[in-house]
Specification:
With 121 residues, the protein is α+β, with helices and mostly antiparallel strands. It has one domain: Translation Initiation Factor IF3 (2-Layer Sandwich), CATH 3.30.110. 31% of the residues lie in helices and 38% in strands. It contains two helices and four strands, in the order ββααββ. Strands 1-3-4-2 form a four-stranded mixed β-sheet. A hairpin with a 3-residue loop joins strand 3 and strand 4. InterPro entries: UPF0145_dom_sf, UPF0145_YbjQ-like.
Length: 121
């Protein structure tokens, strides 16, 4: 079974599998490369902040902020995959996201995990 057949990666063309688990059934970790991360900081534009402020008064999903956060997470993950690939990995184990406010100007999203080379058992 190849990485792609395992259901891995972040799309049909991805050659790097990213999983939240510490191992992959049917695969053996041949080499641990080390920590990799993808980082991005996004500021919110004035329109979305005003809209979010109004929406928060009446309740409901803040769709503009949700969309921005999804885009930001995807960008951080793409950067993590690029870094893993550049270091020779074909998988990232123990994948996580960390989200924090960055100096009251935006949201920092860090995607991180352990880059490894896995082989089929």
């Amino acid at each position: 079974m190849s990485i792609e057949e395992y259901g891995g990666g972040q799309g049909p063309q991805s050659d790097v599998l990213v999983v939240t688990t510490n191992d992959m059934p049917g695969y053996r970790v041949e080499k641990v490369i080390g920590e990799v991360f993808g980082l991005t900081v996004r500021s919110r534009h004035l329109g979305s902040q005003i809209g979010a402020g109004l929406k928060s008064m009446i309740g409901g999903e803040l769709k503009g902020l949700t969309k921005t956060l999804v885009q930001t997470r995807n960008q951080a993950m793409e950067r993590l995959i690029e870094q893993a690939r550049a270091r020779g990995a074909n998988a990232v184990l123990a994948f996580r996201f960390d989200v924090t406010e960055a100096a009251d100007v935006g949201t920092e999203v860090c995607a991180y995990g352990t880059a490894v080379v896995v082989v089929q058992q």
